[in-house]
Request: fold
Amino acid sequence: MKENDQELIDLDEDGRIKEEENKKDQQPKKNNYTFAIIASIIICIVICAGITAFKFYKKTNQIELIIVNDYDEMSLKAANIIAELIKKNPNAKLGLATGSTPIGTYNELIKKNKNKEISFKNITTFNLDEYIGLAKNHPQSYYTFMYENLFKHIDINIENTHLPKGEGDSKLNVENYENLLSKNKINLQILGVGRNGHIGFNEPGTDFNTGVHDVNLHNKTIADNARFFENDINKVPKKAITMGIRNILDAENIILIANGTNKADAIKNLMSNKADVNIPVTALNIHKGKVYVIIDKKAASKL
Reply:
């Protein structure tokens, strides 16, 4: 019995020894498998981080931020960029903006035209927007604004100047201006920006794929524009026709100009490199061409 018992014991020990040896053999395999999983995760993280960093750099690289001392310097810098384009391409197509911000830029372009530095004879222009319900020759129509602040002072062919119509059939006016823009690639679009981040009359919440459309103006926009209507908010039109954000982004290159502390929040949002439909100006972060952002120190105060 003792010998048999010993044999049984030996067998049990052999069995245990073999099992332990198998476990030892399998342990390196499990360690290798675990290491492979961890390594794969690390590689994925590195690759994803690299892609994200590349996209971030690529988006940021599209915007050239130029901070100047004041409004006059901002206006001159913008005018110089526009003038260089006209010299290189006398048949250029320009997208124009209205409001108080671009007036200084237009004054500088008028000077350059008077000095024979540039000519507008073969230039074609397309404005961003127009109020709905104002006659073309109304003192506060954007047609009148452009004529008084630029067109009548330069050698442009007035037939080469285009604005959306604010009178008549709105649906037809939208279709006609969209068709016109689809046939004309804008080389350089000039933009201002509203306090709430609107560009053109594209108010917060406007889809970035929107083309020419009618818009109900936000109360903040109406209040901002009251200064052009004897500070009487009741005289400000409540609707407008505007290029959509898609039309704006179709331009080859863009200049955005802004001055004053009241534009600082909009500029801060733009330079965050995020595209948010609730802040229309941030659409410029997905523009495929060059974007010049020319601002004074006050507009840059929150950067």
